[in-house]
Design a protein that fits this description.
heterodimer; A: 534 residues; alpha+beta; Ubiquitin-like (UB roll); Rossmann fold; 7-stranded mixed β-sheet; 5-stranded mixed β-sheet; 16 helices; 26% helix; elongated; B: 179 residues; Alpha-Beta Plaits; 3-stranded antiparallel β-sheet; two-stranded antiparallel sheet; 5 helices; 13% strand; binds iron/sulfur cluster
Chain lengths: 534, 179
């Protein structure tokens, strides 16, 4: 195994490792445009120049992305010569650059700006007319291309070919006429296409959705997890003015590497939908009327309690959403099965199309969590499938829906009318919630904290990125309120960390994971939970 | 403690009468009264002329072809110490070469401290501290000035940066027709 020295620090690497990767391992950042750890080596941007002290080369500098480390090699990444070489590359790259920074969405996270600031010159020596290319080209509904800003690094082209597996982009024309374009006769339709917007090191590819919404430095970036399918990709939520502005993937080698799908990226509009619940609702003389949240929680518990005392728990049905966090599902189980003794527990499955990359067929983000914690009908008990039937037969007479609705099933929806009582906790007013006696105002994933367990058992954190509307409260605190009403003598349980700890004690699969370890801005955020459950 | 004994001045008879001093004072008053050099300005009938470099209300300007110069880059919003500016960017319609402009531009005149940093930060020479210092409103909301009002105050500035004016407009482009 070759041992080389980078900036005076020694490192031994696997044979075949490139110098830029060896430097990464040492935590030394070598500038790059075309190189990306998730893509093949192109070696076309030439910015990753380093000085090779040993072995002696004809020229002191060369690119480090395709320089294979050899034994005894000595590299300087920030020497006079390396900086000079990089400065020259920068000057070439910027020759025809339009300097659109004031109107360019990339500004603030643009590698051209960053390296220009580090090694570039402050004035252009180029006084010819710049080459003009196509601007504001729609590659697809979601992606806008600017030819003048493009540095032809081909990251986007390689991503489509190597990662998305669909060659939909290509370099067209030659020399200084060269541009990126949708390949002849094709369309940019890959469900992963928007990753090229993040990949593009400059502002050549921008997202139509985020376009001009906000300069990136105004965003509050909160690490979180995508809840649009059971993959649970690590994401960063960029928010401003208490509104989500964009979602971007966050590197996580165990779950999504650097990528996420377009659907997940754009699926946040409902968080700001006008039908969000900002207040608890309690049925009063046949109509839902706004109520105090604590009052509504007490009322909900009263309904459950009265019903169970009178008729027993067998007539009660509990639907717990697999979109809730592990902690919420745990408290929901504690309340329904633990306190009320309900056996008719189920989740509402959601399935769609999946693929063999990231998108899973299961569209519930926390199905595994729900099943590990034990939300499933017991032997002989009523599940969601037999719910409408059981209501008709008079077997089920009351129901509690946590974070869930049955709007998809007209029969179940109709059956709700003949229930003695219905308690619903949700973040918006569904058709189901309209039929409830008490509606508790919960929140969406963006407004709460907790963990979810993905399809492979990786547990990742949700973090609160924005404030919930009105008096809506994190579902965990509502469930904690119900539990507190049921067990007034016990210490309250509604902090995510404390609940997660309790969960670890109660469900062996979650034992050994520390909640605090899960919050992370980079690197490994997930801890294997399912291994113990297998 | 060290001290010094001061002789009490001995006043003359004329001085003791005070009258000459009174006369002298009245004389001075009379002199100014007759010279009549006015310091009081009849504001608002008589407009105040502000000195050069006066930092009045920040305003947006248009160029000589009637284009709003601001491209909604938000540099002014970023730099403004009391956070008086709020820019809501938007996409310009059609194939306008600038692509981006302010959909709304709000200046909270109650917050502005007239520091001039916005003018300094603007890469497009689109915002200037005007000579306007007279403005009022009946509510806080009225004191937040919108884009149209700021453009009205700013007027036209022909000189300076023109983002949208590429050299290509001069009829010269190296790029030939696409083959
Ligand atoms: S790509 Fe970078 S350097 Fe070029 S205009 Fe955009 S922000 Fe500026
Ligand atoms: S569009 Fe961006 S990623 Fe693609 S080649 Fe140009 S600079 Fe590189
Ligand atoms: S003058 Fe200063 S305080 Fe007023 S808007 Fe400009 S930057 Fe803000
Ligand atoms: S006034 Fe100038 S600095 Fe402010 S947004 Fe407009 S262009 Fe940018």
């Amino acid at each position: 195994m070759p041992t080389l020295t980078i900036d005076g620090r020694e490192i031994t690497v696997e044979p075949g490792t490139t110098v830029i990767r060896a430097a990464e391992m040492l935590g030394i950042h070598i500038p790059r445009y075309c190189w990306h750890p998730g893509l093949s080596i192109a070696g076309n941007c030439r910015i990753c120049q380093v000085e090779v002290v040993k072995p002696k080369l004809r020229f002191p500098c060369t690119v480090s992305c395709n320089l294979v480390a050899s034994d005894g090699m000595e590299i300087l990444t920030d020497s006079e010569a390396a900086r000079k070489a990089r400065a020259d590359v920068m000057e070439f790259l910027l020759l025809n650059h339009p300097l659109d920074c004031p109107i360019c969405d990339q500004a603030g996270e643009c590698l051209l700006q960053e390296y220009s600031y580090a090694v570039g010159r402050d004035k252009s020596r180029f006084d010819e007319e710049k080459v003009h290319k196509s601007k504001r080209v729609r590659f697809s509904e979601e992606i806008v291309y600017d030819g003048e800003r493009c540095i032809l690094c081909t990251r986007c082209v390689r991503f489509m070919k190597e990662v998305a597996g669909e060659e939909q982009l290509a370099v067209v024309e030659r020399g200084d006429h060269a541009e990126i374009a949708v390949a002849y006769g094709r369309e940019l339709t890959s469900p992963y296409s928007m990753n090229i917007v993040d990949l593009c090191p400059v502002g050549a590819l921008t997202s139509a959705d985020f376009r001009f919404k906000s300069r990136v430095w105004f965003l509050t970036n909160v690490p979180s997890t995508c809840t649009s399918c059971a993959r649970g990709c690590s994401i960063t939520v960029g928010a401003r003015w208490e509104k989500i502005q964009r979602l971007t993937p966050r590197e996580n080698p165990d779950v999504n590497r650097w990528w996420m799908c377009d659907h997940g990226r754009l699926n946040w509009k409902y968080v700001h939908a006008p039908d969000r619940l900002g207040k608890a609702l309690v049925k009063d003389a046949g109509r839902l009327a706004p109520a105090d949240t604590d009052e509504a929680v007490r009322r909900a518990h009263q309904l459950v309690n009265r019903f169970v005392t009178k008729r027993g728990a067998d007539g009660l049905f509990g639907l717990v959403s697999a979109r809730l966090t592990n902690e919420e599902i745990f408290l929901a189980r504690e309340y329904l099965a633990g306190v009320a003794g309900v056996k008719n527990l189920d989740v509402r499955p959601r399935t769609g199309e999946g693929d063999d990359f990231l998108i899973t067929a299961d569209k519930n983000p926390n199905s595994l969590g729900a099943s590990l914690i034990g939300i499933a009908p017991e032997e002989g008990a009523v599940g969601l499938e037999g719910f409408a039937e059981a209501v008709k037969a008079g077997r089920i007479r009351g129901a509690v829906f946590f974070g869930e609705d049955v709007d998809h099933d007209p029969e179940a929806l109709a059956a709700l009318d003949s229930l003695e009582f219905l308690v619903v906790m949700d973040y918006h007013l569904t058709e189901t919630a309209r039929k409830a006696d008490v509606v508790l105002p919960g929140v969406t994933w963006a407004e709460k904290e907790g963990t979810i367990t993905n399809v492979d058992g990786w547990v990742s954190r949700l973090n609160r990125a924005i404030r919930p509307p009105g008096e809506a409260r994190p579902d965990l605190s509502l469930l904690g309120g119900l539990l507190a009403a049921a067990r007034p003598e016990e210490e309250g349980l509604d902090r995510p960390e404390a609940v997660f700890e309790a969960l670890g004690k109660a469900v062996p699969a979650f034992a050994g994971i520390r909640y605090a370890d899960l919050y992370s801005r980079s690197g490994r955020v997930a801890v294997k939970a399912a291994a113990a459950a297998d | 403690m060290a001290y010094k004994t001061v002789e009490r001045p001995v006043l003359t008879t004329a001085e003791k009468l005070y009258l000459p001093a009174v006369m002298k004072g009245l004389g001075l008053t009379l002199k100014y009264f007759l010279k009549r050099k006015k310091f009081t300005r009849q504001y608002p009938e008589e407009p105040t002329v502000v000195p050069e470099g006066y930092r009045g209300l920040p305003s947006l300007v248009k160029d000589d072809e009637g284009r709003v110069k601001c491209v909604a880059c938000s540099m002014c919003e970023w730099v403004c110490p009391p956070e008086a500016i709020r820019v809501i960017p938007g996409e310009l319609p059609g194939d306008d070469p600038v692509e981006k402009g302010p959909k709304e531009f709000e200046l909270d005149t109650l917050r502005c401290i007239f520091c001039g940093l916005c003018e300094e930060a603007c890469p497009e020479e689109a915002i200037f501290l005007s000579e306007t210092f007279e403005y009022c409103g009946r509510s806080r909301e009225e004191m937040i000035f919108g884009k149209e009002k700021l453009l009205e105050i700013g007027g036209v500035r022909a000189e300076g940066v023109k983002k949208w004016k590429k050299e290509a407009d001069a009829g010269f482009s190296r790029k030939g027709p696409r083959r």
